[in-house]
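Anyone able to model this chain together with flavin-adenine dinucleotide?
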Amino acid sequence: MDFSLNKEQIALREEIMRFAREMLTHDVIGDDRDNHFSREGWKKCANFGLLGLPVPCEYGGRGLDPLTAMIAFEALGYSCKDNGLIFAINNHLWACAMYILEFGSEAQKRQYLPDMCSGLLIGAHALTESGAGSDVLSMECQAVRDGDVFVLNGTKTFISNAPIADIFIVFARTGAASYMSSGLSAFIVTIDLPGVKCTKEWEKAGLRTDPMGEVHFENCRVPVENLLGTEENGYTTFMTTIEWERAFLFASQVGTMERLLEDCVRYTARRKQFGQAINSFQSISNKLADMKVRLELAKLMIYKVGWLKTQGRMALSEASIAKLFITESLIQTTMDAIQIHGARGYMTEYEIERELRDAVAGTIYGGTSEIQRRIIAELLVS
Ligand SMILES: Cc1cc2nc3c(=O)[nH]c(=O)nc-3n(C[C@H](O)[C@H](O)[C@H](O)COP(=O)(O)OP(=O)(O)OC[C@H]3O[C@@H](n4cnc5c(N)ncnc54)[C@H](O)[C@@H]3O)c2cc1C
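re: yes, here you go
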């Protein structure tokens, strides 16, 4: 077993850190306050190639293997403080482009992936409905075949990137029977189709630099060629592609954990109370130790999923374990970082309270912690 990064991975890590430090210098405090998405940052990331890291070169990507893409996103999370921008990229790539790459026809891949990699098209993933959150199968959004189109009706909510998106992966019921996994289909829906509208923009506690919205479909005529995969196979499409979203989307959070730990190590050495550096107090150094333990275990988990996917293997349980552990660990790490910084940790200008607000959502999107535990337990007994 070899845990070391190869030369190319080390070089890519450094390249991304340098890029983020020099190019992603926008005002994240202001953007967070104003719910502002940085298009400039998006374009810079696109030009650098971040939007298509694991996408094969023939479709406009950089063709990296999954493990190396994982390492790259970890480096981005370490060096870029705009978690909302990274979340937008993650949703675009792992929850939209990856679906097209895995299930799209050759024509669909050639039509959409190059523009998604270049940043011209922004992608989103539209699954959740008001009545169908964890319980995906209870969705009501319907697509009824009418000749060479599907007529799509319904509303998707809490959709990240929706207000800025050009292309959506939409799940809808095409089968007659309700509450059947076989009754769902996935579609590529572009914002220029008549009958698609982003009807509401949500204001949220964290990840405020990535807009989220509600998308309404009213008699939207989606051409049959926009069907992703085969008809009524949408649930399988979702279940086999969700591994990417569940683990790869969280690699950047491991980088955030490392950045926060390094920041806390520096601060506790510098900050003096009772005539000594606060890192000499055991209750403070214990927090640093716990942050380090969580970081190392989180790294092992993402690298394992990256390795499995690089081998072309399934990682259903490992992806759920990674998501569960990383998201809950990040919340604890941000809370420890706030406590270590005392009042400063709670102040906006120190940029730690924002990390906590951004982190909290991780245990909800992509399947809640409760659902991840359920999946892990079910896979144990199946
Ligand atoms: C920041 C953010 C970004 C998001 N982005 C997207 C997106 O891009 N696209 C998209 O489609 N959706 C997105 N979502 C929605 C997200 O996927 C759902 O919120 C999530 O699946 C949970 O659904 P819900 O909010 O309806 O909660 P519910 O399903 O109503 O759950 C409420 C509570 O009950 C628990 N619960 C439910 N069922 C069970 C069970 N069987 N066993 C144990 N506990 C259970 C849940 O864990 C939770 O604690 C996003 C959400 C957030 C917060």
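DSSP finds 13 helices and ten strands in the chain.
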